[in-house]
């Protein structure tokens, strides 16, 4: 009996030990998996840890009144009444190109249309803003709408100097370009390398092509005989193709010409944060098919009408239905200068605080929280230095092109946090010339800050003599595949400059009002 009891006690103990071992094993497996998840999250900023924008002390307002009188809300309401959408296409012809408008507007658009007066618009020269931007009264780092970042512009090391690499005399143009990238900009204002680099990408023979890994759409890495590279995005649609009415920003196809136009626009706005891009006509047979290999080669086929097509492999639009086709074997595309290799110019990827939800029904936090900017302002790197001003520049840039696809952005690690933000990936711009998407201006309208130099540049284009459309037309006219933009986009650019300035004015007015309130409170 006592032996039996002893046995069963032994058995139970052994079982307990096993159970404990299993539990410990399970716990360690969970710990490892959780750590891995966090590491991946930190690297890719997927949002699991929620550390980026909602710190423990963060104020998340659920059910914030959407009609609250913020600059952003009033602005959105005001511009909803602008019937720019009246010309927006609501149907497409067989070729998928735009047709002129034939009604089919939503009831609200129809109702609002009648609000429009037939009076010719008087040019508003924004003298109030010119006064601030040009005279710089009260322009400083800490307060006010118009600001400077207060950084030391004389401290401008380059990727070359920080890596202790001297540009070689017989170095390639791309290499020289990459080594000259500095803390403040991708290239200097009067860089002589830009035209050379563009010309090189557009004319050099193509030695080899491979598909670029990552991303949602098909891109090719073009290799030239001198071992330099370019990033190729193929043409998919004619210039006048507008974003399909039922497409979201994240299902919109990319436009190669938008990449070209965005480079010119970025340069004209004096940002110099976008890589140089040029158009080029390719022979699909000799310049892609014959120099491709492996996986890409396997995706080539001849379409029913005899065009040579390929679709590559990627996560969304890489199948027979979304193939890229020659006509019969010529193909247009954009060529972007290649960013430096990780060895000398590794980049850090940041989740954009004003990222959209990328979901057809969900809204992002910034769309619902009227105090969202004060949340962002508290979090590094947005709490000091130039970063927030850079994001506002970026939204100005994106609003002008209509690009709603700014999910992440990148900086060069080697320059630390106080460096410019790269302007990459503009394929989804220039899709809706008759619609002005004011939500893109959320960083500007919710934070009510803008860099003095950016405001000054916008005012110059607004008041002339050279308007932005004219400058863009001139700058892009030399591209091998010009004209780059469909005509209505030029009018959109000029119109949108005015809208941004109106937004800045609303901010200035609002801050003047609150200052008055504060002053009155004091007395
Ligand atoms: N000029 C360039 N040279 C080298 N790499 C680049 C260049 N432009 C972009 N990249 C890298 O390739 C990645 C994908 O490029 P891009 O964002 O243009 O394509 P995408 O298909 O739209 O990607 P996503 O689906 O992530 O938006 C970028 O995040 C960037 O890291
Ligand atoms: Mn993209």
Structure notes:
The protein contains 18 helices and 12 strands. The protein has a 5-stranded antiparallel β-sheet with strand order 2-3-4-9-5, sandwiched between helices. The longest helix is centred in the N-terminal third of the chain and has 43 residues, at 2-44. It has helices spanning 2-44, 71-80, 107-113, 127-135, 159-162, 173-180, 193-203, 256-268, 284-288, 294-297, 342-345, 365-368, 372-377, 387-401, 442-447, 452-463, 468-476, 488-522, and strands at 146-147, 208-211, 220-223, 229-234, 277-283, 301-302, 308-310, 324-325, 330-337, 347-351, 408-412, 450-451. By secondary structure, the protein is an alpha+beta fold. A hairpin with a 5-residue loop joins β3 (220-223) and β4 (229-234). The termini are far apart. The structure holds adenosine-5'-triphosphate and manganese (II) ion. Adenosine-5'-triphosphate (ATP) binds next to β9.
Give a topology summary:
Layout lengths: L1 H43 L26 H10 L26 H7 L13 H9 L10 E2 L11 H4 L10 H8 L12 H11 L4 E4 L8 E4 L5 E6 L21 H13 L8 E7 H5 L5 H4 L3 E2 L5 E3 L13 E2 L4 E8 L4 H4 L1 E5 L13 H4 L3 H6 L9 H15 L6 E5 L29 H6 L2 E2 H12 L4 H9 L11 H35 L1
Helix pairs in contact: 4-16, 6-7, 8-17, 14-18, 16-18, 17-18
The chain binds adenosine-5'-triphosphate and manganese (II) ion.
């Amino acid at each position: 009996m006592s032996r039996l009891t002893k046995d069963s006690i032994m058995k139970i103990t052994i079982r307990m030990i096993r159970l404990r071992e299993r539990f410990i094993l399970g716990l360690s497996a969970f710990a490892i998996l959780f750590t891995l998840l966090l590491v991946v999250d930190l690297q890719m900023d997927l949002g699991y840890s929620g550390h980026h924008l909602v710190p423990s002390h963060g104020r998340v307002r659920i059910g914030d009144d959407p009609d609250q009188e913020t600059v952003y809300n009033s602005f959105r309401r005001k511009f909803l009444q602008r019937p720019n959408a009246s010309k927006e296409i609501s149907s497409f012809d067989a070729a998928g190109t735009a047709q002129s408008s034939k009604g089919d507007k939503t009831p609200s658009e129809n109702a609002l249309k009648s609000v429009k007066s037939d009076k010719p618009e008087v040019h508003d020269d924004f003298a109030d803003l010119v006064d601030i931007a040009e005279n710089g009264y009260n322009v400083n780092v800490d307060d006010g709408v118009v600001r400077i970042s207060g950084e030391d512009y004389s401290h401008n090391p380059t990727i070359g100097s920080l890596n202790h690499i001297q540009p070689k005399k017989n170095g390639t143009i791309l290499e020289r370009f990459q080594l000259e990238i500095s803390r403040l900009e991708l290239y200097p204002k009067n860089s002589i390398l830009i035209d050379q680099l563009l010309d090189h990408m557009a004319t050099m023979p193509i030695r080899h092509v491979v598909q670029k890994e990552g991303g949602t759409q098909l891109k090719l890495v073009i290799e030239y005989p001198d071992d330099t590279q370019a990033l190729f995005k193929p043409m998919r649609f004619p210039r006048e193709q507008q974003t399909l009415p039922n497409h979201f920003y994240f299902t919109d196809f990319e436009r190669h010409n938008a990449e070209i136009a965005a480079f010119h626009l970025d340069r004209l706005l004096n940002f110099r944060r976008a890589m140089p891009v040029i158009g080029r006509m390719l022979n699909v047979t000799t310049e892609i098919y014959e120099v491709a290999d492996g996986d890409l080669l396997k995706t080539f086929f001849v379409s029913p009408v005899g065009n040579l097509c390929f679709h590559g492999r990627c996560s969304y639009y890489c199948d027979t239905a979304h193939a890229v086709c020659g006509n019969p074997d010529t193909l247009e595309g954009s060529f972007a200068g290649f960013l430096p290799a990780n060895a000398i110019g590794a980049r850090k990827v940041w989740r954009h605080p004003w990222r959209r939800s990328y979901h057809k029904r969900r809204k992002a936090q910034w769309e619902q929280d009227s105090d969202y900017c004060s949340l962002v302002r508290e979090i590094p790197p947005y709490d000091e230095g130039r970063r927030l001003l850079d994001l506002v520049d970026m939204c100005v840039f994106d609003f002008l092109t209509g690009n709603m696809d700014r999910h992440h952005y990148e900086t060069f690690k080697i320059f630390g946090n106080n460096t410019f933000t790269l302007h990459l990936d503009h394929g989804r711009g220039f899709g809706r010339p008759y619609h002005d998407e004011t939500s893109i201006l959320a960083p500007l309208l919710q934070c009510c800050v803008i860099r003095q130099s950016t405001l000054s540049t916008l005012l110059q284009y607004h008041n002339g003599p050279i308007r932005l459309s004219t400058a863009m037309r001139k700058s892009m006219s030399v591209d091998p595949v010009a004209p780059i933009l469909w005509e209505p986009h030029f009018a959109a650019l000029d119109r949108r400059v005015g809208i941004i300035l109106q937004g800045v004015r609303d901010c200035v007015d609002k801050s003047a009002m609150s200052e008055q309130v504060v002053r009155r409170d004091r007395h």
